[in-house]
Specification:
Layout: E1 8-10, E2 16-18, E3 27-34, E4 37-44, E5 47-52, E6 55-61, E7 65-72, E8 75-81, E9 86-91, E10 97-102, E11 105-111, E12 117-122, E13 130-135
Antiparallel strand pairs: 1-2, 2-7, 3-4, 4-5, 5-6, 6-9, 7-8, 8-13, 9-12, 10-11, 10-13
């Protein structure tokens, strides 16, 4: 998997891909329309952030490249890649318990805070894509 050169793109399966952790300076793309929503991405080596209709969806520190990002009524799933391990924050439903899977392995259940944010760490270290699935 490679970085997303155009910062964000729609995929054939209805998912989106975004982020470029190889950029030395912050780049952003606003007003990207996808399935009736307006998306905004900011990305570079230190952070990758996605918003949908001005609501927080995804953030990673340091920056990452995300492919196949899909939101459903039950949660979210995507693949993520980066040069270093990443702290990922997802915007989900508030005060809701989710099961979290990394590369198909359960890392346990987590409950979002009152703002609906869920934090997880993913070991990346430039070794290729890691799949993440978060479901109610």
């Amino acid at each position: 998997m490679a970085v997303v050169e155009q910062l964000i793109r729609a995929e054939q399966d209805g998912s989106i891909s975004f982020g470029n952790y190889k950029l030395p300076e912050k780049k952003k793309l606003e007003n990207f329309e996808h399935n009736g929503d307006i998306l905004k991405v900011k990305t570079f080596k230190d952070i990758t952030k996605l918003e949908c209709n001005e609501n927080f969806i995804y953030e990673s520190v340091p920056g990452t490249a995300v492919t196949g990002f899909k939101e459903t009524d039950n949660g979210v799933e995507f693949s993520v890649e980066g040069e270093n391990d990443a702290q990922i924050t997802l915007g989900l439903l508030e005060s809701t318990e989710y099961s979290v899977y990394v590369n198909g392995n359960s890392i346990g259940k987590m409950t979002t805070n009152l703002g609906g944010k869920l934090n997880l760490s993913v070991e990346l270290s430039g070794e290729g894509a890691v799949s993440v699935k978060v479901e109610k």
